[in-house]
């Protein structure tokens, strides 16, 4: 588990060394300070000024760009065909699905993120979407979530986007508000999903369309007021402006998995009687207004993605007030398209602990993306248990999706795109620094 102190140490090791030194110096005079007071001194000392001891990328004397020149263009598998949306060209259709890493402190991205996300770009993914990044501190899933609610977050994020672009990939960021699922322990804490107590960095004032907890034992959210709805939309807008300043070229709005926007969409979680609840038109209002407002500030040359839970898939026994279906998703996608959204990223579930998917196995959510693409006539990203290169290629080739997002497979194997190319008979160009990896089956030193 990432304690705030240990995450701080990971954030800025050089700074902390100095801070610890200073702390121990001052302790010569103030032996009475207890451990938590010392920790406060260390954290206050390091957070505002991350140090940058690494050589800036601009000084690295190589091309750095992964240019696909080494394989026959005619035989290029669809998975590796480029795609242009607005002013951005993705070199292939492989994207890193956003994945929370619970490795931030006070919302600040850390050196963990730089290495983690940079690695995917170095190994061939065309699109790297940074994890759910909170538009407000209250909208974090856990105290360790990444954030973009203040300008001070921008420099760390910018370092990350520069590395991703250096490797020829497109940097994206998912911006999010966790709604009633905020303020829980992080994924790798033994008490995952349980409310994080205030003394461990949690907070009690969580928001939702209706005052219904996610599950038994979860915090009861406060019913969000119309004024707070408008403020939240503005927080998404401000986050998008910061994302642009940080160098991202794709923003994905997180409207899935039972978080704030998702719980507005579903009749299961939205029991409001005002303009933001009841009818389909009312339930989609927050999502639509937010997408429209973000589109106005997000540069016209950059694509806007929206991730939805394309179906709630709640066990009907537990869905007495109805649930969100793929037909609703098609209607929503048409309206999102009309306000300038470019891609619908189709996930599912998260709105209830009683999730019951009709499908299992590789690509279990792809039928949702396929239907949204066909009926709303909009580009889609497909995600969920995709790991076989031939399968990933086939869903692009057959026009079911435009992007294939991988999560856990890439965590396990960041170089999956290179292996996928090999298996599909296509030689993916490596970064200059990694070119020798390609010739691993011949002796390094030849004598003939
Ligand atoms: C560690 C982890 C963190 C995740 N965090 C997010 C997130 O921040 N935003 C999101 O929309 N989905 C999140 N997801 C879901 C993934 O993006 C993805 O949709 C899901 O894992 C299914 O894809 P996969 O089978 O390729 O892993 C997360 C999944 C994992 C495993």
CATH class: Alpha Beta
Mean pLDDT score, rounded? 88
Strand content: 5-15%
Q: How many distinct domains?
A: 1
How many extended strands?
A: 13
Globally, the shape reads globular
User: What is the fourth-level CATH superfamily?
Assistant: Aldolase class I
What hetero molecules are bound to the protein chains? flavin mononucleotide
Main sheet makeup: 8 strands, parallel, barrel
- In the CATH scheme, what's the topology name? TIM Barrel
Helix content: 25-40%
| Main structural class | alpha/beta
The gyration radius over C-alpha positions equals 23 Å
Give helix and strand order, one letter per element, not per position: HHHEEEHEEHEEEHEHHHEHEHEHEHH
H/I helix tally:
14
Distance between the termini: 54 Å
What are the segments in which pLDDT stays under 50 over at least 5 consecutive residues? 1-50, 64-70
Trace the largest sheet across and list its strands: 3-4-6-9-10-11-12-13
Question: What is the CATH architecture annotation?
Answer: Alpha-Beta Barrel
